[in-house]
Design a protein that fits this description.
Blueprint lengths: L1 E2 L4 E3 L4 E3 L4 E2 L4 E3 L10 E4 L12 E3 L4 E2 L4 E3 L4 E3 L4 E2 L4 E3 L1 E3 L2 E2 L2 E5 H7 L4 E4 L2 E3 L4 E2 L4 E2 L4 E2 L4 E2 L4 E2 L7 E5 L2 E6 L4
Parallel strand pairs: 1-4, 2-5, 3-7, 4-8, 5-9, 6-16, 7-10, 8-11, 9-12, 10-17, 11-18, 12-19, 17-20, 18-21, 19-22, 21-23
Antiparallel strand pairs: 13-16, 14-15, 23-24
Length: about 180
């Protein structure tokens, strides 16, 4: 394993890293569950069968985590083997939510703050084997990226990407097959 200078590791007991992994400069690895207050509004997102545990960050073997990445695993992140993330990739399994999940018309940022509440969306993120995530892409809670997929640079991934896809955009969508199989 190679961990370059400037890497920040929060709650290392919640992090598991495989063999031959390179974590590049200035990466933030943040793990561990979050305790919410009873006033907080929580939306759990996962429309697939997840074997990712909340709070855990798992990185498989032979991965390269690019410079200036943020892997925030409060909702759980599982990265398979042979995965590459380019520089400035951000993977969030917990995020603030701008809308109330029980009333999507209600914008919660100002309303919740005024009432002393915060709205969150939490969900596992799974990045399967052989995935490559392009420069400056963002992956949000509750997303599964299928094996051997490629996410184009500057993409916003808010829904699942099927196996062997080239996907990109805001929001990211499947563009074509990555490899002819």
């Amino acid at each position: 394993m190679r961990i370059d200078p400037g890497v920040i590791i929060e709650n290392p007991g919640w992090i598991s890293i495989g063999d031959d992994v390179w974590i590049d400069k200035y990466v933030i690895l943040s793990a561990g569950p979050v305790v919410f207050s009873k006033e907080d509004i929580i939306k759990r997102k996962c429309n697939w069968i997840s074997n990712v545990n909340e709070g855990e960050l798992t990185i498989g073997s032979r991965c390269h985590i690019g410079a200036f990445n943020i892997l925030q695993a409060h909702g759980g992140i599982k990265i398979g083997s042979d995965v590459t993330t380019s520089a400035f990739v951000k993977v969030y399994s917990l995020s603030n939510m701008s809308n109330n999940p029980s009333n999507l018309e209600e914008i919660t940022f100002a309303n919740c703050l005024a009432k002393g509440k915060v709205a969150y969306i939490i969900g596992p993120v799974e990045i399967e084997n052989g995935v490559w995530i392009g420069l400056d892409s963002i992956i949000l809670p509750g997303v599964k990226i299928g094996e051997y997929s490629f996410i184009r640079s500057k993409s916003l991934v808010i829904s699942n990407i099927e196996r062997n896809s080239v996907a990109g955009g805001n929001p990211a969508r499947r563009i074509k097959e990555r490899f002819k199989i």
